[in-house]
Write a structure and sequence with these properties.
The protein is mainly alpha-helical. Helix content is 77%, strand content 0%. The protein contains 7 helices and no strands.
């Protein structure tokens, strides 16, 4: 049922990275947060593809080292791409903009 290479260290690494994704999505501005929170699994998929399976399945892979060094740059690149893709695909859907304005007034 599961991949033979799946083990505890792989799961710990994946969970550490996914938790970091969730934590950083919550820190985004309201429009970006709304779009990326709905696309969090796509965002995670893109980040994991960027890391590559060979690194993730390697028992020596250090997810904390990745989070401290490369994660921020990768996260920013892919969150911006998701927002740009949303804007290009749905230019007439202004709901996130209206909702983000509402969130901004509530936050203040």
């Amino acid at each position: 049922m599961f991949n033979d290479r799946l083990n505890v260290s792989v799961l710990v690494n994946v969970i550490n990275i996914f938790r970091e994704i969730e934590k950083n999505v919550k820190k985004l501005d309201s429009k970006e947060r709304l779009i990326n929170s709905h696309g969090i699994y796509l965002l995670a998929h893109l980040l994991f593809l960027n890391i590559s399976k060979s690194k993730i399945y390697n028992p020596q892979f250090d997810s904390i080292g990745y989070i401290n060094n490369e994660f921020s740059e990768d996260f920013n690149r892919y969150t911006k791409r998701l927002v740009n893709a949303y804007d290009e695909i749905s230019p007439n859907n202004k709901f996130p903009y209206l909702f983000s304005k509402t969130l901004n007034t509530v936050d203040k």
